């Protein structure tokens, strides 16, 4: 889905302008978090965690005809434009899409960094639930723990598994039905 003023209805020009600025700032690698443009700058330790998770989820994602990526997620009607660390998305939905909505994903993964840990723990958790992301996996590098949030509701997720310390296998439910090995994160 590409962003157009018509996508947002009346009075959405400021939202459109802000999201457009976020998409074109810092070489296209920035997010819009509650109306504030934040550049993305990821360490190799951060990338190592996402790579290991991508590898573990890869076979099952392929079986589900999905891709794993970190493309743009729009939260229409809000001052938010996210770039998750990983998202598992049906290939047919992703093909040709500019940005997706969080309810078009099967799983979203955020890996905390020192600079954005509270954003991932609080703001994104609330917004992903509000916008219908079915599964949200928070990998908290500072606490060395994982938490899986499921069954979104406008007030938050209604089923929470964790926080589980690194080393504890984490069951990712339907449609994945797989265990993640967290010992090497």
Key words describing this protein structure:
185 residues, alpha+beta, tt1808, chain A, 3-stranded mixed β-sheet
Q: Could you characterize what this model shows?
A:
This protein is of the alpha+beta class and 185 residues long. The protein has a single domain (42-180), classed as Alpha-Beta Complex (tt1808, chain A), CATH 3.90.1570. 27% of the residues lie in helices and 33% in strands. It contains four helices and 13 strands. It has a six-stranded mixed β-sheet. A three-stranded mixed β-sheet has the order 5-4-7, with helices on one face. Strand 12 and strand 13 form a beta hairpin. The longest helix is centred in the N-terminal third of the chain and has 20 residues, at 44-63. Residues 1-10 have low confidence and may be disordered.
Give a short synopsis of this structure.
The protein has 185 residues and is α+β, with helices and mostly antiparallel strands. Helix content is 27%, strand content 33%.
Alpha carbon gyration radius: 16 Å
What fraction strand? Answer: 25-35%
Arrangement of strands in the largest sheet: 3-6-8-9-10-11
Major sheet description: 6 strands, mixed
CATH topology: tt1808, chain A
Number of strands: 13
- The average pLDDT score comes to 87
Helix/sheet category: alpha+beta
Assigned CATH architecture:
Alpha-Beta Complex
Oligomer: single chain
State the low-pLDDT regions, or none.
Answer: 1-10
Straight-line distance between termini: 33 Å
Task: Specify the CATH homologous superfamily.
Answer: tt1808, chain A
Dominant shape: globular
- The secondary-structure element order is HEEHEEEEHEEHEEEEE
Count of DSSP H/I helices: 4
Helix share, percent: 25-40%
């Amino acid at each position: 889905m590409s962003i157009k003023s018509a996508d947002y209805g009346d009075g959405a020009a400021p939202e459109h302008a802000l999201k457009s600025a976020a998409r074109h700032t810092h070489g296209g690698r920035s997010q819009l978090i509650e109306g504030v443009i934040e550049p993305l700058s990821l360490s190799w330790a951060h990338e190592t965690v996402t790579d290991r998770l991508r590898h573990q989820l890869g076979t099952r994602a392929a079986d589900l005809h999905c891709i794993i990526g970190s493309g743009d997620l729009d939260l229409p009607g809000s001052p938010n434009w996210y770039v998750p660390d990983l998202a598992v998305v049906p290939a047919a939905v992703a093909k040709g899409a500019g940005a997706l909505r969080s309810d078009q994903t099967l799983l979203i993964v955020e890996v905390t960094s020192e600079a954005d840990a509270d954003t991932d723990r609080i703001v994104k958790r609330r917004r992903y639930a509000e916008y219908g992301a079915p599964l949200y996996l928070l990998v908290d590098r500072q606490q060395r723990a994982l938490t899986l949030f499921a069954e979104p509701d406008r007030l938050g997720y209604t089923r929470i598994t964790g926080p589980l310390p690194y080393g504890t296998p984490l069951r990712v439910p339907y449609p994945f039905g797989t265990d993640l090995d967290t010992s090497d994160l």
